[in-house]
Amino acid sequence: MNPEDLDPGDLVDQKIGPVTILFGYENGKYPYGNSMLISGAEKSAVVDPCLGVVARKDVMPAVDMVMHSHCHEDHIAGTHLFPGVPWYVHEEDAIGFESLDGILEIYGLEGETRDSFADLIVNEFFYPGKGDVRTFKEGDVLDFGGGVSVTVIHTPGHTRGHSCFLVAWGDSPAERLVYLGDIELTGFGPYYGDAWSDLESFEASIEKLRHIEAEYWLTFHHKGLISSRDTFLAMLDKFAAMIGDRESRLIEYLGEPRTMDDIVEHRFVYRPGQTGNIIDSVERRSMGMHLKRLMRDGVVTETDGKFLSAEAST
Fold first, then answer.
1. Which residues lie below 8 Å from residue 171, measured CB to CB, with a gap of 6+?
2. Dihedrals φ, ψ of 176, to 5°?
3. Which of 17, 138, 151, 192 could be cross-linked to 169 through a Cys-Cys bond (beta carbons 3.0 to 4.6 Å apart)?
4. Cα 70 from Cα 90, distance rounded (Å)
5. Which residue in 269, 270, 262 sits closest to 307, CA to CA?
6. What is the per-residue burial (b if ≥16 Cβ within 10 Å, else e) of 95-124?
7. Three-class SS string for 246-270?
8. Strand 300-303 to strand 306-309: parallel, antiparallel, or no bridges (unpaired)?
9. What beta strand segments (E) does the chain contain?
10. pLDDT digits (tens, 9 = 90+) for 270-309
11. Each residue of 126-167: pLDDT tens digit?
């Protein structure tokens, strides 16, 4: 659905303290997402302006800055609507705003797949080009005035610079909201299939989030607002468990020798039967990370390009 065809009146907004959640079409189902506005006494920001922000462009207020959890196409689709203010992103992902080649480097696609995805980024996600890009890092605190602050929580794995934001407007957990970006808590599980993704960094980021005290949690896609830390932790456990599920299924599959092409075709991230060059690329990268770890730990061996579980080889 073209965002220009959406009626802003059909999209849901919800206010919590200084945060206004701008829910996307179908609760932020890709290619849409759930963005948010943060309004303090002195400054305001829009976070991850997506296609839902494009649909709301005629009713969006002016802001003092744009904040990005990371640089992926669906999280920057509305950035072009704010050309006169700084665009903030973690220093590790800033290359994505320097040029189209920069954001494509984050994905690591090649050939015709790269070219077609470049067209998608430009024509359907309104790649903004260069702007006043400023960077943040782990632990940086942005003061919005009136007791409203945002603390950067660097959570790499999805991309090198992926970050969550802790919005606080008081001293108690009931006055805190964590924006999770693409740590989206879905049954699909963590996504670490790009050139700038990393499996073990993602696992460390998940562990970091377990120790944050907040009442509210917001995902960019699908799940949306979670209004209880206990509920969040239960959802986080299920989300994280998909990593172990993929790995255990891979070990079982390697009960006999398999090539990487066999592994890619079998599908461990996506459902069997799903096809496409991007899906192949994601499977190859994701399972390559698992294989690297399993071989390091002596669980899998590799001989002449074929992988076998150590248990099956004895």
1. none
2. -140, 140
3. 17
4. 7
5. 262
6. bbbeeeeebbbbbebeeeeeeebbeebeee
7. HHHHHHHHCCCCECHHHHHHHCCCC
8. antiparallel
9. 13-16, 19-22, 35-39, 44-47, 65-67, 87-90, 133-136, 141-145, 148-154, 163-168, 176-181, 216-219, 225-226, 300-303, 306-309
10. 999 999 999 999 999 999 999 999 999 999 999 999 999 9
11. 999 889 999 999 999 999 999 999 999 999 999 999 999 999
Phi/psi of residue 297, nearest 5 degrees: -90, 5
Two tokens at 256? Answer: 């006999």
Angle (CA) 92-96-102 rounded to 5° is 110
- Whether 112 contacts 160, CB under 8 Å: no
Can you tell me the distance from the alpha carbon of 91 to that of 134, in angstroms, rounded to the nearest whole number? Answer: 8
pLDDT greater than 80 at residue 314? no
Amino acid identity at 113: T
Cα–Cα distance for residue pair 82/295, rounded to 1 Å:
47
Element holding 285 (H helix, E strand): helix 277-296
C-alpha 100/C-alpha 291 separation (Å) is: 31
Position of tokens 């592994």? 263
Q: How far apart are the first and last CA of the chain?
A: 54
Residue whose token pair is 């649909």: 55
Task: Compute the residue count for the chain.
Answer: 314
Structure tokens at 212: 């944050």
